[in-house]
Amino acid sequence: MPLTDEQRSVVESDARILKVNAVAGSGKTTTLLEFAAHHPQFKILYLAYNKAVAVEMREKAKARELGNLTAYTIHALAYRHANGAGYDLENDLSEWRLLEQHVPATFRGTEQGILYAWLLKDIVNFYLNAELTRLDAELIASYQAVTLPTEEALNLLAARGDEMVVLVRNILSDMKNHKSPAVHDFYLKMFQFSKVHLPYDVILVDEAQDTSGVMLSIIKRQEHAKRIFVGDSYQQIYAFRHAVNSLDRVDGESLWLNQTFRFGDGLAQQISHRVNQGYELLGETPGLRMTGMDMDTRFGKRAYKGRYPLAVIARSNLSLFDAVLGHLFGKGAKTMHFEGGYPGYSFMNARVAGLLYLKEDKRDKINDPLVKKFKSFDDIRRFSNDTQNHGLSTMIDLVTRYGGKLFDFDQRIKSRLVDKAQAELVFTTTHKAKGQEYDIVEMVRNDFATRGDLLKQLNAEKANVSMAKLKEEINVYYVAATRGKKSVMLADF
Hints:
By secondary structure, the protein is of the alpha/beta class. It is built from 21 helices and 18 strands. The chain has helices spanning 5-12, 28-38, 51-63, 74-81, 95-101, 111-129, 137-147, 151-176, 184-194, 213-220, 246-249, 265-281, 317-328, 350-359, 369-372, 377-387, 390-402, 405-414, 430-433, 451-460, 467-481; strands at residues 17-22, 44-48, 69-73, 89-90, 182-183, 202-205, 211-212, 226-231, 243-244, 253-257, 259-264, 291-293, 298-299, 310-314, 336-338, 425-429, 438-443, 484-489. It has a 6-stranded parallel β-sheet with strand order 3-2-6-8-1-10. Strands 13-18-17-14-16-15 form a 6-stranded parallel β-sheet. The radius of gyration is 24 Å and the shape is globular.
């Protein structure tokens, strides 16, 4: 397929720093491959947001015989350049080790002590992903500004913030000196400090709307190279992981890929209209101008009903579970698949079972170390609210709503699981659907923010409202709405 004028402008741009806002389904991978083919004299690094995307890009580059293009994730690159192999690595920092080794003994066994340990872990993860390098009061101030902690957490930070900074320094020192396992983000931070000069003429940064601050710092430093940041500002939905939008953080020439090849123009105009309405409510100038294909993608009252395979997309795990039950006990399709794997949705695991036993006061049956720390179901519910731990809150809500029936539901679901290619129903949250596309999509009703919800928050909490979080709700709607090719049953907006 020949390049569009927009794609050609990207391929032929001679800007030292180029920012490309590419709408969903606009062929950004094709465009970047064409850039590499058009510039065989350049040694090019493509930075992917996960391993699967990097592998896919390598395979496509090999098929095109593009020997000048190398694909890595930022972590894989850091692992090579910052001696990742030299550390004893773990996937997640253990809050229980922090509790035993770093929380002051005076309140280690209290509910506040557990909150202290959780905050320590979150601040360490925040620092490792942030652009900032100093370990001082600025860390606590930046953490508070970005995460907007609850009153309970704020009080603890105000009383013991200086002490926590010292402990964060000690925790990282232990990782560096092999006294404790290091998380993968640690060698990424070491990569930032190393000031490595990457041996490439061009660096292509994919998913630039969701880069980490530390990754952006590393790329900014490569001033010898031409840098192209490609992403979609309306797909920025990972702020809860401390991601930043590089397209807003760097200065350079700006280009757009407005043409989507995924669905028809009618749906493209409808989605653009809704997203722009949302941004207008937040006081921003409408900026989405998506153009679709000359094809009929059905939506609204014309959306397909009762056709399979069907992808069901929810905003939250809890609403997705309700949708699963609707199909589990319904008369329609039976075979199921969960995007990214069923265990990743945490509908039933040791923690959910532990919460159920805690609620039923069967403490001897609890195996989960977190749940064991709490004396009552109300205590752990309060902890989940204080820490804004959405995953834990979802599990608590599941137990509250369904109780012991969860064991039976889990077995019924597992009996219907098949590979994605054979599934009549694919269930996913918006975050797990990112980067995917499906023929027929149904957005779970009453689970996505509407204009009314946005207005309610703007009017009720004007002084404390997080505009970034409201934007993210609009973006979540956009991501879900742009997954379908033939039919999309849109949620209200």
